[in-house]
Write a structure and sequence with these properties.
This protein is an alpha+beta fold. Helices cover 31% and strands 19% of the residues. Helix 7 (279-286) packs across helix 8 and helix 15 packs antiparallel against helix 16 (708-715).
């Protein structure tokens, strides 16, 4: 493999594993272990009393300091990782001889102290020429004595490093993991420090940036902290300027470059605005990494890092643009300290590979984050933001997705207030967990709400849902359970379409699986649905759920239903037989029955506590559609208020009742109904057989009528009108006096 010219001066290595003489010429390739065996202790002493064996051991150690493959040992490497050798005295032999390709790792306390699975050893990504510490010549290579073999082995090390680094970068799924993977894969193996700048904000997909392009310092990493700096900081502190310090050492200490750490290291230019046509913009537009010593980089780095920060000399910095699929999204700066060889020409190819994989990973992470945001928004809009609190019933709900990576599905629940203080309870499950399932679920939920407002019977609602599912497609299947609770009659009507049956927890602690007709799933077509009417005792709790709560790979649906029933009964016994368990705590306790392997599907849970309305708090009358109906309605209302001790509301209630009943009598052909309900508010409901809903309008001064709804709107706490299958209901509410006491 042809090697590009290196940035190092001096002779290139011929081999590794041998030493160099004092003139810098390479010795013959002799294995270090063989050298130890061929020199007896006390013989062949070199000047200074060092044996020939120790000299060869020092040569082996010098070769090991370059990584054994032309790669220098990173700063901070532990001395225990380097083969031990005697520096003086006779008879001392190395404790360990480095083998071909063995590269010591960084020192203790660094995250990259040991190579990770599938990664190349530390130092595998850089090349120094293989020079020893005491000479500029090459060293011998065990098993290969030609420059071609040295170059081939070094290129192999680079390829292994790039493969391991890109695999580590690709393991990240979000933005921080990808950037962290880049930092940990390159420090200290490829560089001693790294700075990663990303655009703020990051563009998503085809979005075009608005305003100036700004880079923000996202993360930095380094081999050792600022606290370990010695010579350079003390020299500068004594009065020598940066230029003088650089001249004293020949290189500027990389620790003077801007780095940010949790302990308050040297401050960096955290924000950088790219000037159109500037040096940094030109480098980023060129896409290819450049050495810090190049003219373009020396003009661009001060713009990126800040004008107050010095720049490294020589090829000890690489500026690599991070380009995604369509545009540049940031930049990475790789830095090497003076203690290790500078970057070579081939290292630009390594930096280009790392930058490309990182940029594409960041692009995918940003797109994934946007999709997750869309999924969350879709789920939030498909499900109710909050449950209503209708009269006579308390509600609680839970929703759990099948997995965090698939946060939308086809499960839904709903509670819809109906005329007459009733409430519709709905729970359903569309097959699948995709966006399509969520979209179908949203359409079915909207259809169910529309049908509920028409006050259709539960079986009729399921029939229309079945027709709607067939219009959406031939394979649109769903299960649904629709129930209507009447707090006045203490009854509940349930219709089922292939859904698991609800569970009723009685006040005494008995849990009962309700017997409801199973029915066929929605979307089958041509199937009649049946409804059953059951008692809804006060203090009871009805639990509606989807099959994800009771069915999994480890248990069938009926086993799960029985476990749910037992769990509810156990929870009720803990709170006492006279007091039902708190509704929110009951929902949490039900979900706690799920084991680690029980989450195979989405879970929707709706719990309804039946409080009901006592018969003594209800007053009901029929009024013939005659001219005398408003007067009779005022008298009935006055009597009810007297019985409840709410005489303070007589004037307001009589006025509003008279206006609403007058409007009903004008269009009705059958008897008009009048009902008063005393709960936390006073509610009045007037029903007739006319489907035309009243509309509030501003009457002119010459009009004789048209002011009734204006008075209702000004004096009532709330009011509304609902169309029924047999007519309509107009209702309004008045707040109870603060001194009123319910009997």
């Amino acid at each position: 493999m042809t090697e590009y010219p290196t940035s190092q001066e001096g002779p290139q290595p011929v081999a590794s594993g041998g030493g160099t003489d004092e003139a810098g010429h390479g010795k013959a390739p002799i294995a270090a272990a063989e050298a130890v065996r061929t020199h007896a202790p006390g013989t062949g002493a070199e000047p200074g009393g060092v044996t020939a064996a120790a000299s060869d051991a020092r040569a082996a150690r010098s070769a090991a300091g370059t990584g054994g493959a032309g790669l220098p040992r990173p700063r901070g490497a532990a001395s225990s990782d380097v083969p031990a050798a005697a520096d003086s005295g006779a008879g001392q032999v190395p404790g360990q001889i480095p083998v071909q390709g063995q590269i010591p790792g960084p020192g203790p306390g660094h995250d990259n102290a040991r190579p990770r699975d599938g990664e190349a050893p530390a130092g595998a990504g850089s090349g120094s020429g293989g020079a020893g510490r005491h000479g500029g010549g090459g060293s011998a290579i065990p098993g290969g004595s030609t420059p071609e073999a040295t170059a081939a082995r070094r290129e192999g090390d680079r390829l292994r490093f790039v493969g391991a680094a890109t695999r580590r970068i690709a393991r990240g799924i979000d933005l921080d993991e990808i950037v962290l993977g880049l930092c940990r894969a390159t420090v200290p193996t490829f560089s001693d420090a790294i700075l990663v700048y990303l655009r703020d904000p990051l563009p998503v997909g085809d979005e075009r940036p608005v305003g100036p392009v700004v880079l923000r310092l996202r993360r930095t990493d380094r081999l050792r902290p600022i606290d370990d700096l010695t010579d350079m900081s003390s020299t500068i502190g004594a009065g020598m300027d940066l230029a003088g310090a650089a001249g004293a050492t020949g290189e500027l200490d990389f620790s003077q470059l801007p780095l940010v750490g949790p302990q308050g290291d040297l401050p960096a230019a955290e924000l950088c605005e790219i000037r159109p046509g500037g040096a940094l913009a030109e480098v980023l537009r060129g896409v290819r990494p450049v050495f810090g010593s190049s003219a373009a980089a020396r003009a661009a780095l001060p713009e990126l890092l800040g004008l107050d920060h010095p720049l490294p000399r020589g090829n000890r910095a690489v500026l690599a643009p991070l380009r995604g699929r369509r545009r540049v999204i940031g930049a990475a700066v790789f830095l090497r300290s003076p203690e290790r060889p500078a970057f070579e020409q081939n290292d630009l190819l390594v930096a280009a590979q790392l930058a490309t994989h990182t940029a594409l990973g960041i692009d995918k992470a940003v797109l994934y984050g946007r999709e997750a945001y869309i999924a969350d928004e879709l789920q939030r809009t498909m499900l109710p933001d909050s449950l209503p609190q209708p009269t006579g019933v308390r509600l609680a709900s839970r929703y759990l997705p099948a997995a965090e990576t698939a946060r939308v599905g086809g499960d839904w629940y709903d509670a819809i207030p109906l005329p007459g203080s009733r409430v519709a309870l709905v729970v359903g499950d569309v097959m699948g967990h995709s966006m399509t399932s969520a979209a179908i679920m949203g359409q079915l939920r909207t259809t169910a709400q529309t049908l509920a407002q028409l006050d259709l019977p539960p079986a009729e609602v399921l029939h229309h849902l079945d027709e709607q599912a067939q219009r959406l497609g031939s394979d649109r299947m769903a299960t649904c359970l629709y129930a209507v609770y009447d707090p006045v009659a203490h009854r509940i009507t349930i219709a089922n379409a292939g859904h698991p049956p609800p569970v009723l927890l009685h006040l005494g602690g008995r849990a009962e699986v309700l017997r409801v007709p199973p029915g066929a799933p929605i979307g089958v077509g041509g199937v009649d649905f049946e409804a059953v009417e059951l008692d809804a005792p006060a203090g009871g709790t009805l639990l509606l759920y989807t099959d994800g709560l009771v069915e999994s790979r480890l248990r069938d649906v009926w086993t799960g239903i029985e476990q749910l029933r037992e769990r509810l009964a156990t929870t009720a016994q803990l709170t006492g037989l006279d007091h039902p368990p708190p509704l929110e705590a009951l929902c949490d306790d039900v979900l706690d029955m799920l084991g680690p392997g029980d989450r195979d599907d989405d879970i929707a849970l709706l719990a309804a506590r039946f409080d009901g309305i006592a018969p003594s708090d209800v007053a009901y009358w029929f009024l013939d559609p005659e001219e005398t109906a408003p007067g009779r309605a005022r008298r009935f209302a006055r009597r009810a208020l007297t019985r409840w001790g709410l005489e303070e509301l007589s004037d307001s209630l009589e006025l509003l009742v008279s206006e609403v009943v007058t409007n009903a009598v004008r269009y009705a052909e059958r008897p008009v109904t009048l009902r008063l309900l005393r709960t936390d508010v006073l509610r009045c409901e007037v029903g007739d057989d006319s489907p035309q809903l009243p509309r509030q309008r501003r009457a002119r001064d010459t009009d004789e009528g048209g002011r009734g709804l204006f008075l209702v709107n000004r004096m009532a706490r709330r009011w509304g009108a609902t169309r029924l299958s047999s007519g309509k209901v107009v209702w309004f509410e008045l707040s109870l006096p603060a001194t009123a006491e319910r009997r």
